[in-house]
Here is the input.
Amino acid sequence: RSSDLNRGEFFMTLQNQPVARSLYRQLCKHEELETLKSLYEQDDDHQELGNYHIRSSYTTKKTIEGRVGALQNAVDEFYKSKNDFAAKATEDQIKLLREQRRLQEELNVPYIDYSLHETVHHLIVDGHHKKARSEE
Here is the structure.
């Protein structure tokens, strides 16, 4: 219908309605993640875009490199938001994920998605003491 707002007009209408905007964001967090991403992009909300990419890397079925790509997008957004701590922590997560993949392929034991502590613990328990010491 011609009376329907297009998406851009709807977002612009929400700009001046903080309560409605907040409620719509809450709805999108549960039901329309791509729309939520569009809202963050419109607002240049780089912190929330970084958080979106972090969630995306863990909630969708992706290859390790697909997950790393989403995490790298998060790093970029965190740097844009001047959140150096989140950017560095995410870079460390990328390193850990790649190392876990390497260990999993080399040792044929699941390591992906363990914390650093759990990864080192499992390496020690599995008798890979030298590999446990070489973890960063």
